């Protein structure tokens, strides 16, 4: 069966069929996926029963892997997966659901806030690729917001206002919004804020996007309360239903998205259920803004 890309959402997301991701892709298939990402920003590959090794191999078609270190509070001896993969499940190293008050679980609750993966890194992520090995039977949907459409829908005054703004991003901001602020000195150093432009331009299509995230907690040169109020307004604007695609997971779905053009969040689910989700991440090409003056 030939590869097919069928749009799903009003402004973003498409379903890809006719590919077996357990097998190597040819250059034409890789180019077609990249073109699909440029257009749709989110691609859904149903029923892909891949292994971790096959997921890594698929990811490497699109660039180098991003390091997972520095994005969580899980000690090395408690990791469940190879460090090439980010573990965004609710499981401990023995494959059991984390206790409700487990520090790792509370930190991961930040994934329920709208965010862009790795905006807290000086070089933010390009693509994220998430495999649903075991999915929640109730809840646990992932929502994606089209930041291109959100930018296009700004009124002219706001569009002019955001054009040259720079934000500071840190996991301390997103986790602090949930009351998770008991961090060690080492963790605070690891999560030191980085600077990102508030408006990005896609390198291939030239489309402009808002670059928002719950990790963004300050605007350079603005009073903090004013910055956070403005960022809240922008987030509310960008996540209106007309800009959002909701993915309802089926077992072994693989979903790929462009962090430069979208935000996403997971919805609540029964914490006692096993939800085994494994993410590989394609590293970005470079910073959006010089970091020398970051806080």
Account of the 3D structure:
- The chain has 295 residues and is an alpha+beta fold.
- It has one domain (4-281): Double-stranded beta-helix, CATH 3.60.130.10.
- It contains eight helices and 15 strands.
- The chain has helices spanning 27-40, 52-59, 103-108, 147-152, 156-162, 171-176, 185-190, 224-238; strands at residues 4-7, 14-17, 42-45, 86-87, 127-134, 142-146, 166-169, 194-197, 199-201, 208-210, 216-219, 244-247, 254-258, 262-266, 276-281.
- Strands 1-2-3-13-5-15-4 form a seven-stranded mixed β-sheet, with helices on one face. Strands 12-6-14 form a three-stranded antiparallel β-sheet. It has a three-stranded antiparallel β-sheet with strand order 8-7-11.
- Strand 9 and strand 10 form a beta hairpin.
- The model has no long low-confidence stretch (mean pLDDT 96).
Question: Notable features of this structure?
Answer:
295 residues; alpha+beta; Double-stranded beta-helix; 7-stranded mixed beta sheet; 3-stranded antiparallel beta sheet; 15 strands; globular
How many structural domains are formed by the residues? 1
Taking pLDDT < 50 over at least 5 consecutive residues as the criterion, the unreliable ranges are none
Q: What CATH architecture do you see?
A: 4-Layer Sandwich
- SS field, number of helical segments: 8
């Amino acid at each position: 069966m030939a590869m097919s890309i069928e749009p799903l959402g009003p402004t973003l997301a498409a379903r890809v069929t006719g590919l077996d991701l357990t097998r190597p892709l040819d250059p034409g298939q890789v180019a077609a996926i990249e073109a699909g990402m440029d257009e749709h920003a989110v691609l859904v590959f149903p029923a892909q029963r891949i292994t971790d090794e096959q997921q890594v191999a698929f990811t490497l078609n699109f660039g180098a892997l991003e390091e997972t270190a520095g994005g969580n509070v899980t000690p090395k001896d408690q990791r469940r997966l190879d460090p090439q993969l980010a573990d965004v499940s609710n499981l401990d190293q023995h494959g059991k659901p984390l206790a409700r008050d487990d520090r790792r679980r509370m930190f991961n609750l930040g994934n329920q806030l709208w965010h862009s993966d790795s905006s807290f890194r000086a070089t933010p992520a390009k693509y994220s690729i998430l495999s649903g090995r075991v999915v929640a039977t109730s809840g646990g949907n992932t929502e994606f917001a089209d930041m291109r459409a959100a930018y296009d829908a700004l009124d002219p005054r706001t569009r002019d206002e955001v054009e040259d703004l720079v934000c500071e991003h840190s996991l301390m901001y997103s986790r602090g919004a949930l009351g998770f602020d008991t961090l060690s000195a080492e963790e605070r150093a690891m999560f030191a804020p980085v600077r990102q432009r508030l408006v990005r331009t896609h390198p291939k299509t030239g489309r402009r996007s808002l670059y928002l995230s719950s990790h963004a907690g300050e605007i350079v040169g603005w009073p903090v309360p004013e910055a956070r109020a403005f960022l809240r307004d922008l987030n509310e604007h960008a996540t209106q239903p007309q800009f959002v695609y909701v993915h309802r997971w089926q077992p072994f779905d693989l979903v790929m998205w462009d962090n430069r053009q979208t935000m996403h969040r997971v919805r609540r689910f029964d914490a006692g259920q096993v939800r085994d989700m494994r993410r590989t991440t394609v590293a970005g090409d470079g910073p959006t803004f010089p970091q020398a003056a970051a806080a």
